[in-house]
Amino acid sequence: MKISVKKGPFVKSSNSKQKIEITLLTSLIIMNLYKIIVDGVLPIFYLVSVFVPLFISSIIYDLLSKKEIKFLNYTNEIISSLIMTLLIPINANYITVLVLSFITGIVGKFFKLNEISLNLALILFLTKPSFTNYNIYIFSFILVLSMIFLILNRAIKFRITLSYILILFLSFILKPIDINALFMLLLTGVYVIPQFKSSPNTLKVQYIYGLLLGIIGVIGNYNILLISITILSIVFVYIDMINSYKLSK
């Protein structure tokens, strides 16, 4: 019996997990270098305070799950650490950051939560936040370039991000802009909300997810948004599954 392989209208993609990770790392390193220019060496200490416990918690999770330990599999911990470093208040206590990163790393792995939003929410709950005073023009230029770079390389769920940002800008037409809050909301919309493992995959649900979090970001404070991301990342897993089932029918 001969097996013939025919050419057909198949969907092909050169994208891969490794390419997505490299794209994210490139974007995040540039953003973090700018933060270091603004804040000095503080972000480096926060980066270490986040990465070390996240890495250890991932090793523990893999050992308990009887998975093979390969250090190249922990690129996601570096990405998560770089994202959190951008958003951690500059007056946060290093020990607090270290302990909470370990706890949220374990909890996030076992319960499939968005560990970034959960960790940041807890840090903000225990810290009276003092955020980086970015230069609005430089920050906006770098962030827009980063977002375009991520979208072109398909390293971001752009429907979620663009839906979320649309709501933010529509609201800011109607009320005064708090620059510091805007920076935090935009960074969260690009790097935290569309996180691959904890955000929906089907198109319609992605739009709903982005729009809903945009509304929450407008009417609530920043900590409420982070808590909402954590909760909705669980809820929308099931909504996404239901929608996928309907589409398959």
Task: Characterize the overall form.
Answer: globular
Give the termini separation.
34 Å
Share of helix, binned: over 70%
Taken as a percent bin, the fraction of beta residues is under 5%
* Mean pLDDT over the residues: 88
Helix/strand class = mainly alpha
Q: Sheet bearing the most strands, described? A: none
Number of helices in the DSSP assignment: 10
Number of β-strand runs: 0
Low-confidence parts, pLDDT < 50 over ≥5 residues? 1-12
Please give the radius of gyration in angstroms. 19 Å
Sequence of secondary-structure elements: HHHHHHHHHH
What do these coordinates show?
The protein is mainly α and 249 residues long. 72% of the residues lie in helices and 0% in strands. The protein is built from 10 helices and no strands. The chain has helices at residues 17-39, 42-64, 75-87, 94-111, 115-126, 136-152, 158-174, 179-191, 203-219, 222-248. Helix 9 runs antiparallel to helix 10 (222-248). It is globular. Residues 1-12 have low confidence and may be disordered.
